[in-house]
């Protein structure tokens, strides 16, 4: 019994491609180009990859098609489809596989052309027979039900939800790659067209294209492949339900479990984290995850995000890319939380760089708050 | 055991809202399953739901006119299970968390469904 291999694997490549609009590209082409760029950062080629991790929006056999596309015969492959959190579950599996010596180079990839191809969020699962007769908007009504309950129990307000969207936009305005960079204020978010109460259109993530990829190897090899390896200190997940009616408590997500496990693996506490990326498909997500990941007490997330606390210049930098709300949301955002964590710890983030960031937390969400996965990354000095 | 989902729908088409109940623990199960969640017991009896419950959460789905906005709610049944449904008979925005509601079976083109009305 050794537990998670803390710091024994590292990211040596992290790249994106086609963020925003990538007209004409197939989803697999976007994933391939992000992968080529990520591998290139480490001086590696597709043929070096022997552990392949991918979940694509519509290709349910993506490990097969992507292996063929890359021209590789991976020894380990994993097409886990837990929703947008899948890529953080891939990370956890990759770390175990690499540490056990079952493979040497792991590639985690994702690509979607949903904005150019359809202009709307692509559904990757069948409608639940227990929900379909009531025509909830998928997935926004489920998140709206969680938000309404949080407001009922804790007095969380629409203005507090709007603070999350505005903070994300302020970060996006510092990110040249972000898809939404126009100014945005609280009143605009609060007064935006309602979609499924209490969530309005500015409480909802973008619909964009985009691809991301990361490459991991064992730590002892990492320095030879990249001057600033980013070490994986923890990766843990939890599943609490499928449909929103099955969620044990609408105001408490599985992030409370995955986060606690991740902190224990890494040997760090919330107060140690320098920069946070959480999957903000909707504004309520950020509030729920900041609570469940221990950055504030349960019920205090609304007050916590007030006054720009998670915006540039605030005390806790959250979603420095602009998040799913303003950076990009190509259907499943999980891997982008990882790429931004890596970029922050490498010090590559320009105007949005968090000075001296050494510990980064990435958190993925899948389904309707159903799957939660937390990863913690550290610079060399955190080992 | 008859296929649980089909059995539920068969009763529903007859105008009856039934729940499964574990013979061993007395715990109610919804949505219908082949086993009791967690314990795996397979002795589940079909029993009529009381129809009484309370709104646990609610949302109004906004539609472009001329389509009308409509309610989607999570309802906690007195028997324990929580289900997605809708509250009808009042404006969607008038549905409140904590509101006492009562079920009725509503026939429809795509099959019967359970809806709730405010308790009078």
Q: How are the elements arranged and paired?
A:
The complex is a heterodimer of chains A (383) and B (120).
Chain A: E1 9-20, H1 27-41, E2 51-54, H2 62-70, E3 76-78, H3 86-99, E4 106-112, H4 114-117, H5 140-154, H6 158-172, H7 186-190, E5 194-196, E6 199-200, E7 209-218, H8 219-225, E8 230-239, H9 255-266, E9 275-278, H10 283-292, H11 301-304, H12 323-326, H13 334-346, E10 359-366, E11 371-378
Parallel strand pairs in A: 2-3, 2-4, 9-10
Antiparallel strand pairs in A: 1-7, 1-8, 4-7, 5-6, 8-11, 10-11
Helix pairs in contact in A: 6-10
Chain B: H1 4-13, E1 18-22, E2 28-29, E3 44-48, E4 52-61, E5 70-77, E6 82-85, E7 100-106, E8 113-118
Antiparallel strand pairs in B: 1-2, 1-3, 4-5, 4-7, 5-6, 7-8
Protein model, in words:
The complex is a heterodimer of chains A (383) and B (120). By secondary structure, chain A is of the alpha/beta class. Chain A is built from 13 helices and 11 strands. In chain A, strand 2 (51-54), helix 2 and strand 3 form a beta-alpha-beta unit. In chain A, helix 6 (158-172) packs across helix 10. Chain A is globular, with a radius of gyration of 19 Å. The model of chain A has no long low-confidence stretch (mean pLDDT 97). The mean pLDDT of chain B is 97. The longest helix of chain B is centred in the first third of the chain and has 10 residues, at 4-13. By secondary structure, chain B is mainly beta. Chains A and B meet through helix 5 and strand 5 of A and strand 4, strand 5 and strand 6 of B.
